[in-house]
Amino acid sequence: MRKDEISQPLETLYFGGGTPSILSKSELESIFETIEKYYSTQHLREVTLEANPDDLDQEKLHFLKSTPINRFSIGIQSFFEEDLRLMNRAHNAKEAESSIKMVQDFGFENITIDLIYGSTTTTNEMWIKNLQKAIDLNIPHISSYALTVEEKTALDHQIKKGMTKPIDEERQSEQFQLLVDTLTANHFIQYEISNFGKQNYFSLHNSNYWKGIPYLGIGPSAHSYNGKSRAWNIANNSKYIQSIQQNSLPQEIELLNEVEQFNEMIMIGLRTIYGIDLNRINSEFSQPLIDSFYLEINHLLNENLIEKRKNKIILKPEAKFFADGIASRLFYVD
Questions:
Q1: Do domains 12-209 and 258-330 have the same CATH topology?
Q2: Where do the TM regions start and end (predicted)?
Q3: H-helix segments, the chain
C-alpha cells in the first residue's frame, strides 16, 4: 500500500517502537521478504533491532545472525537492581550484562544501549559505575536520557503518595555533566544531546532523522516525514489492523507551515553536532523569520551560549543541558 512513498533506495531500517525482539523467525522473515519485494535494498547499510535483555537467548540470536540485522539497541536502563525496580523493568542487573555479552559472542559489534540518569535511586557514584560498566563492556554507542515522570504511571502515583522522592533536577544536571565528561574522556563523541558514539558508530538511522531526510513509518503509532508533511498511524492495534484489512491507511497527516518547518530546523539543529545551517536559514525562509532569528542569535553569542563555526550555529558544550530552553528563544512565534 505504501510502496510509492519512498522512491530512493533504502539506507536504514529500524525495528523499534515496542519490543520487536518478540517477533518469531517466520514473522521477521516475512517482513524482510516484503521489504525486498517492494524496495531497493542494495544500499542498505544499517538494520537495527530494539530488544529487551530478557528477550535475547542463544536460539533467538542464532536465527537473527542469518537476517540482515547488523545493529542491536538493548534497553538496559541501568546495571543496578534498585534502579530497574523503580523503572518497573522485567529484566534484572545480571540479565542486563549477560545479554550484551551474548550478543557480542554471536559476532554483533554494533550495539547501542539505553541508560537512564537522574532517577531517585541513582546516586552520582552509581551513575559513574553504570557508565564505567558500559565502557568496560566495549559498547560503541550509548543513548542516555534523564528520567521523566509521566502522568498516571506507577512512579507518578508513588511520588504523589510520598512513597518515592520527587525528581531532583539539580542531581539530573550533575549526572548529565558526569555523562558528558566520562564518555568524552573515553573517545565517545556527543553527536546529539542524548547520543554518544565512537567514531564510525553513530546511528545512521537517527542521524537521517536529524538531517531532515524523508522516512516511512510502518505499524501502529509509527510516524512518517517527507520534508513538508508529517503523518502518524493510529495507535490502537485492532483498529489499525482492521483498517489495513479494508485497504485503508489509518493515519493523520499534518502539513508543516513555514514557521513549523523553521522551528523544527532550529530544535533539531541545536541538539546535534551538525548545528543550524545558516545557508538554509537564509535561503528557505521569509525575511521576518530571518530577522527574528539573527536578533536572538546575537544575544546568545553575547551570552557565550552558542558559537558560529563554518556557517553553522552550534551550542557551546556548557550550554547543552539547556538546549531546549535555548531553542525556544530562537523559535518564531506568530
A1: no
A2: none
A3: 25-38, 58-64, 81-86, 93-105, 124-136, 154-160, 169-185, 204-210, 237-245, 258-271, 278-284, 287-302, 323-330
